[in-house]
Design brief:
The protein is mainly beta. 5% of the residues lie in helices and 32% in strands. The protein has a 21-stranded mixed sheet that branches. It has an 11-stranded parallel sheet with strand order 9-12-14-16-19-22-25-28-31-34-36. The longest helix is centred in the first third of the chain and has 11 residues.
């Protein structure tokens, strides 16, 4: 036994010492928490590629097995907030995060090993650590400890890579480092399975800025799939979030849930089976949602209380509703506007609504392509909108008459004004409208519906407030005069045949 081994054993016997493993190139030391620096000080430097494998078994049976690539950076702890204070359309999911930490605990083992390999081969994978990865994680006997340990250890800017296979996770996984990338082998090859989850409100919770998640699938989270609160520059790329049960209120509420954020990108991704919105962005700015697929959700895509969103080239199908642009009362950020939705295919959104009663999305009738609710100055252009049995586009105020809860917010602007719907293709919409639309708009219903509700305090006939339609082919239209008691319904296009200034193709910034 060399002189370092007794010190190493004492460090391993200290409670919670396995929380993180860091590499310090400046001193040439490899450090296991603070208690291991002395024990490990005899290691060679400057920091060649190393493979570390530490195991610690005890009453909880937790183990940590990490394969680490290039050295660099400081220790990064878990700074995730203790509770979520934001409120979205799924009010029942805004519960406190219950994750108590995933660092190994319990009694010590009889040893730990440090294996140095110039080739970067990991004993947990049997393969080489990719050259562009700072950590490489494979499925193990304890996937929570392995994956969370790598993320806790990650320095700002690190790339944490996931091998092929299925990771079985029973608690929320947190990412707190800035500019971190979590990357799988491929969307259909790396699976994060949360079907046994009993701790935490989400699958993955992101609190660091500049985080990118890429090329893996998240399955069966009881809450949101991947959530980011109050972050900047968050990217979801080539990620799938899925629930297998069809139209189940036991599924999670949202696939992607960035809220209170700026610089949101969601691309090349997929969400299946969410009981609220598959792809959701709330109370955020500077948003790009492109080239995604969403189906079997209540809402395929929802932009809520947000400003400056581009939603383009997505395929939303077989949801209750395809794309929602909502403003809701009672949220910290109000007056969302300027969503541009173009070149989307929004078709056959006729699924039953399985949203939680009392939530906003639960009031959306099945069979809707686009729905603009109490939101101003949005633009829908060059979309293919077809086969939605209730209507292609509906523009409505926030109104209890359509099944919404009372606003109870004196500063809330309930009217939808200044929206611009032009150059879209409509086909086969409104053939079997659901309640209550069938009762107010007739059968079949028009391609474009407007509730006719106008702000009584606004300047009469202000052209900037008109919801304009322009060059939508043979699409028909109805103002069903909800606020006038349905007394003066009109299909006359002339008052709404107008144009507004087009929005920029991409959000500013």
């Amino acid at each position: 036994m060399d002189a370092a081994q007794p010190a190493m054993r004492r460090a391993l016997e200290e409670p919670r010492v396995m929380k993180k493993l860091s590499r310090d190139c400046r001193s040439g030391d490899a450090v296991l928490a603070s208690g291991m620096k002395g024990a490990m000080s005899g290691m060679n430097s400057p920091c060649p590629r190393r493979t570390f494998s530490f195991a610690r078994a005890g009453a909880t049976g937790l183990a940590l097995s990490l394969s680490l690539g290039a050295c660099g950076g400081d220790d990064k702890g878990d700074t995730d907030a203790a509770s979520d204070s934001t409120v979205g359309t799924q009010g029942t999911d805004d519960t406190a995060d219950m994750t108590a930490g995933t660092e190994p605990t319990g009694t010590s083992t009889d040893g730990a090993t440090d294996t140095e390999t110039e080739g970067g081969t990991s004993p947990t994978t049997g393969g080489e650590v990719p050259a562009d990865c700072d950590a490489f994680v494979s499925p193990s006997d304890d996937d929570v400890a392995t994956l969370q340990g790598a993320l806790l250890n990650a320095a700002d800017g690190d790339v944490v890579c996931l091998a092929e296979g299925t990771f079985s996770l029973n608690t929320e996984i947190s990412i707190s480092a800035n500019n971190l990338t979590l990357r799988g082998a491929a969307r259909d090859l790396t699976i994060l399975d949360f079907s046994a989850q009993d701790l935490g409100a989400n699958g993955i919770k992101i609190s660091g800025d500049g985080v990118t998640v890429r090329s893996f699938t998240v399955k069966e989270t009881p809450g949101d799939g991947i959530r980011g609160d109050d972050v900047a520059d968050i990217t979801f790329d080539d990620v799938s979030v899925e629930w297998a049960a069809k139209e189940s209120m036991e599924s999670g509420a949202y696939g992607f849930y960035p809220v209170g954020s700026t610089g949101v990108v969601i691309r090349n991704s997929r969400v299946i089976g969410a009981r609220d919105a598959g792809i959701y962005v709330g109370q955020s700015t500077n948003i790009l949602v492109e080239d995604n697929e969403a189906y079997d959700n209540v809402a395929g895509i929802e932009i809520e209380n947000s400003t400056g969103a581009t939603v383009r080239r997505n395929h939303t199908h077989d949801n209750t509703a395809g794309i929602l642009i909502f403003n809701l009362p009672g949220l910290p950020v109000q007056d969302g506007k300027h969503t541009l939705a173009y070149e989307n295919i929004v078709e056959n959104n006729n699924g039953e609504n399985f949203g939680i009663p009392g939530t906003s999305v639960a009031a959306v009738p099945p069979g809707v392509g686009f729905m603009i609710l109490a939101a101003d100055e949005n633009e829908l252009r060059d979309n293919i909108i077809r086969g939605n049995r209730t209507t292609g586009v509906i523009i409505v105020s926030y109104n209890e008459a359509i099944g919404l809860e009372p606003a109870d917010d004196p500063n809330f602007d309930q009217y939808a004004e200044g929206n611009y719907v032009h150059d879209n293709s409509f086909e086969g919409n409104g053939m079997m409208p659901a309640s209550p639309i069938d009762g107010v708009a007739g059968v079949p219903a028009a391609d474009v519906l407007f509730d006719g509700c106008l702000d009584p305090d606004a300047m009469a006939m202000d052209p900037a407030l008109v919801n304009c339609l322009w060059q939508n082919g043979d699409a028909d239209y109805m103002n069903f005069d909800l606020c006038g008691g349905l007394a003066n319904k009109s299909t006359d296009l002339e008052p709404v045949t107008c144009q507004h200034t087009a929005l920029p193709e991409l959000p500013e910034g």
